[in-house]
Amino acid sequence: MSYCRQEGKDRIIFVTKEDHETPSNAELIAEDPDDPYEEQGLILPNGDINWNCPCLGGMASGPCGSQFKEAFSCFHYSKEEVKGSECIDNFRNMQECMQRYPELYPQEEEKESSPQAESDSGSASAAPSESSTLTPETDSTPGPDNTLPTDNQTVS
Amino acid sequence: MLKCRTVWRKLAPLARASSTVCRQNVRRTGLTHGRLPAQVPAAHMSTGPAGGGRENQLYFLLVGVACVGGGVYAYRTVKGDQLRYQDRIDEIASRQEKFNTEKPDTPSESEPPAVEATETQVVPKPEPQAEPVPEPQAEPLPEEPSPPVPDAEVEAPSETTEPPLEEPVVEAPPEEPAEPHAVPVVEEVGESTPVSLKVPSHTPYLLIGGGTASFAAARSIRARDPGAKVLIVTDEPDLPYMRPPLSKELWFSDDPSVTETLRFKQWNGKERSIYFQPASFYINPEELEGTENGGVAVLTGRKVVHMDVRGNKVKLDDDTEISYDKCLIATGGVPRNLQVMERAGEEVMKRTTLFRKVDDFKSLDKVSRNIKSITIIGGGFLGSELACALGRRSNDSGLEVIQMYPEKGNMGKVLPEYLSNWTTEKVKREGVKIISEALVKSVTFKDDKVEILLKDGRLVKTDHIVAAVGLEPNVDLAKSAGLEVDSDFGGFRVNAELQARSNIWVAGDAACFYDIRLGRRRVEHHDHAVVSGRLAGENMTGANKPYWHQSMFWSDLGPDVGYEAIGIVDSSLPTVGVFAKATSKDTPRAATEKSGTGIRSESETEDTATSPVASSTPAPSVEQNRDDYGKGVIFYLRDKVVVGIILWNVFNRMPIARKIIKDGEEHADLNEVAKLFNIHED
Q1: Three-state helix/strand/coil letters over B398-466
Q2: What rounded mean pLDDT belongs to chain B?
Q3: Owning domain of residue A65
């Protein structure tokens, strides 16, 4: 049973698991997925890539940012049978650039997080190096705000 | 010391290479053959019985003239620039030491250009071989009226004034000074070198301040404006770093060299540096203008002292002017001090730490190992975290840790009283002696101890004081820039889009902004710096978005007490707390292990670690005391609307909290709202 007490202006309620079993009747306002003020996920409502998505870490803003953007854009808009198959050169450029900065883009194959959601393993070697940026060294913007990847956004 | 040596080692081959290049260049010009052997004592020369004569005489004449010319030149150089050189070196040595350890490669980069550029100036006649190399270096140096001055080049200007003298001996001396210059240059670089002092005179994006907000803005700008060129100017010697570990994780590290590496291991073993990015991420300020794809350059050790809003430019403490298109002010703040401390005299000041920066961490770490008693004044986030961190240490070292503050309990201004009291007990269990309701009357230094006299007569004797009594936002530029300063919260007054004036934004601790939901406020938390920095960066690239995504903050007080919070969390507001009984699974440690990150705000945005630690959680503890606030949710109300929420030992539910605050609805029964958090689950 829940138990409640008041200490001055502060109210304290203790609840058991059973107390909280019934669904909440608190009303929340419906979310507008196109709200321009909201933090966007990886893909914007108009279909473009959100380069400022924290899920990308520093990929789009680092020294290899432009190569990354080219490669990823090419892949994103690719309409080929094998998605991204015409983007090999872009990905190669990107990888070459990243090899120049081993500190920033560790070369090990680490499979992590959301850029993977968009790009499938077709983007082969590029993808692992993408994801590897989310390792401690480079991704280190602590808590760039925002939405949990699961929060609706049209990621893949 | 070791730093110097490693740097030297790195640079030595380069120095040798560059001086070899010099020598080779000059040799190629075909004039050396007489020169080099001259260095060698004559005895080594095969001046045989007949071998002397005219050839040798000519030889020696040439050499003699060269030496004389070189000698005169050197004398002039030394005399003429001695003072300036020394000043420069002193300034550089003091501020660039840190920077140099982060950028060992860049000094070596600037090295060859430095030395080769020397040659360019001194050998005006196109020497075909020498030219191609220095030529490209001449390129990026358009601005300077005088020849380029990478700092090593202090002596270069005097060289160029020497041409008349050098004409007759034009080839030989350049080599001689070039070589010795290679050496002092390298030595300089070895000591504590500033990578380059060449500052661009214009930058499209200027970020004043090199902290979290600035870095977040830089990243945002670079993501949105392809090829953007961003210049960060900071008066600290360090590249941008994150602050929370300075009072948390770094203290718990087992690594004895942690004060050097500034790396910390999170609960799950994942290691990271406090620096957002290693030095290789950034580019040299002098390269900023020429770089094709743009980049972020950090100018350390410089302070912006004057801002000319009309002319869109700023002036640094060394009188350099930089003009900008868009500017961000992210100057953060300076720790406050108690007035009684300031009046207390030098002996006390020497034994006081105002904790904020990396250097403060290093010195406090060192001090705390060598003293018997330390007192922390201040009961807020920083004070409590440091007290717990030091208290933890006290178990091994026998250090007495005292924490004193005017409130009744730790976090007294944040947590409702019952929770504040509970927290205080926890802090005591971390080994901290708490002196609450303590107002400091005076501080003196007596008998080799610092004596703190409280207003109620209590006397505390200690060896060192840490003052954690708040932050004074840095609004030094407000006057020259003509920007408004907020009288209620302090800081620069900006609108909901963080804009102060047309091309000027402010973010981070220094920004007093309008929050559409919660009203005007100023927030001094890490995540806010990130959120506001990002937003400012977006708005600087044309987004025109208001502050909407609510930032959060968190704190841990030992392994048992951790909370995340969002919105206005002020203990003077009425609160409603809904608690469940905590199991041992609900601790900060478990939360980070699950989410794979020690920086709690990150767990929201990045996927959970691929290898979650399989922690063997012991069975939930039995029968907790009724009044044990193990875990729960606390709502802060203003006019019946929830404006702040604390998630007490309940993790990974921040999005729900954020939603509730965003809605800004009046809820009749907050217990129902609390149900949304599922506090009984993990």
Answers
A1: CCEEEEECCCCCCCCCCCCHHHHHHHHHHHHHCCEEEECCCCEEEEEEECCEEEEEECCCCEEEECEEE
A2: 78
A3: 41-105
**Residue A53 included in any domain:** yes
**What gap in Å lies between CA B624 and CA B631, rounded to an integer?**
11
What CATH number should be reported for the domain holding residue A99? 1.10.287.2900
Chain A touched by B61 (CB under 8 Å): no
Q: Does A7 touch chain B (CB under 8 A)?
A: yes
Is A110 inside any structural domain? no
What sections of B253-314 are H helices per DSSP?
Answer: 258-261
Spatial contact of B511 and B535, defined as CB atoms under 8 Å apart = no
Q: A7 to chain B: which residues are within 8 Å by CB? A: 416-418
> What's the one-letter identity of residue B334?
V
Q: What is the pLDDT of residues A104-147, one digit of tens each?
A: 887 754 433 334 333 433 333 333 333 333 333 333 333 333 33
**What is the CB neighbour count within 10 angstroms for residue B532?**
30
First to last CA, chain A: 44
Retrieve residue B223's tokens: 């993501």
CB pairs under 8 A between A and B: 210
Task: For chain B, say whether A93 makes contact (Cβ under 8 Å).
Answer: no
Considering only residues 196 to 215 of chain B, which have any Cβ-Cβ distance to chain A shorter than 8 Å? 215
- The answer to whether residue A91 sits within a structural domain is yes
CA distances from B121 to B30, B134, B163, B418, B444 (A): 19, 9, 9, 74, 60
Angle at B359 between CA B253 and CA B480, to 5 degrees: 140
- Amino acid occupying residue B488: D
The ipTM is 0.74
Residue bearing tokens 């009357």 = B441
Percentage with pLDDT > 70 across chain B = 68
Residue B275 DSSP one-character state: B
The torsion region of residue B53 among left (phi > 0), alpha (psi -120 to 50) and beta comes to left
Round the average pLDDT of chain A to a whole number and report it: 71
In this structure, is residue A152 part of a structural domain? no
State how many domains chain A has.
1
Contacts of B151 (CB under 8 A, 6+ apart): B88, B92, B188, B193, B194, B196, B197
